Amino acid sequence: MKKALIQTLARIPLIVWAVLVIYPIIWMFLGAFKDYGEIFRSPWALPESFDFGNFVQAWTEFGIGQSFFNSLLVTVLGCALCLLLSLPTAYAIERVRFKGSKVLFNVYLASMMIPMVLGWIPLFFLLLELQLLDNLLALSLIYAVTQVPFTVFILCSFLSGVPKDLEEAAAIDGMSQYGILFKIVAPLVTTGIITASIMNAVMYWNEYFMALIFLQTDEKNTLGVAMDLLANEAEYTNAWGALFAGLSIAIIPIMVIYAVFQRNITKGMTEGALKG
Predict the structure, then answer these.
(1) How far, in Å, CA of 76 to CA of 71, rounded?
(2) Phi, psi (rounded to 5 degrees) for 175
(3) Which residues, 6 or more positions from 260, have their beta carbon under 8 angstroms from its beta carbon?
């Protein structure tokens, strides 16, 4: 009885914190279905009717639809490029053990400590020189490269737990080094790949400043930039319903991804911590 009481008391702060976090999100979703008058007349009440007009207005009139697909493109491409660069690098550092591999790994760790803001100005002039400003593919590559050190760090911790006997057996059978990596090793570290990819995807999806600096036309805006423009527009046109709808559109994919892969993320973080 005493133990149950202690557990209940310990959960109360967690429940209060969960309510404080979840309620503004619910309020935002409900506001997306209200018109301008209803938002100010009864901001805390349920919508009188669930009208999707705000979603249509945000998607078409304010360009959230185009920005959604731009963000989807840079997120998917950025994650794929980052994984393509990071997996062979992590495998080489962890398994090949060439001279200077530990130094290289420490360099990757050190680069994680460098603020990305320090590279924005050089990157801007580099893209300007290469005529790659306002290019979603270039932005995807920049996103991928910025997360390579973090992804290498995560994958190395998982690769260290893969038995070397499997790789040696595959090598004896004549499999190439890349075949061993992608056909033998990669499936065994799927949890680490999923964990790193999802964390990278969240970062790419929510990123704002690099998209603001390197993209220069409204047609190329990602969701972060588009939502900032919509927020400024709502302040002067009272399009608060469209703003809430746009925020809902932006947050739903992340919520769905986390709900689907929540166990993989938890498992990946736990295994990575134990192996690291």
Answers:
(1) 8
(2) -75, 140
(3) none
| Residue 35 DSSP code | -
Report d(CA 75, CA 78) in Å as an integer.
5
Q: Around Cβ 63, how many Cβ atoms within 10 Å?
A: 18
Q: Which two tokens stand for residue 177?
A: 């080094």
Q: What is the mean pLDDT of residues 194-220?
A: 93
The residues spanned by each domain of the chain are 62-275
Q: Which two tokens stand for residue 229?
A: 């423009």
Class of domain 62-275: mainly alpha
Query: Which residues, other chains included, contact 124 with Cβ-Cβ below 8 Å and sequence gap of 6+?
Result: 133, 213, 214
Position of tokens 């973090």?
150
pLDDT number for residue 261: 81
Q: Are 108 and 149 in contact (CB under 8 A)?
A: yes
CA distance 94 to 91: 5
Cβ pair 34, 28 in contact under 8 A: no
pLDDT for 33-82, tens place per residue?
Answer: 988 888 888 888 888 888 888 999 999 999 999 999 999 999 999 999 99
pLDDT for res 165: 85
Cα–Cα distance for residue pair 148/141, rounded to 1 Å = 11
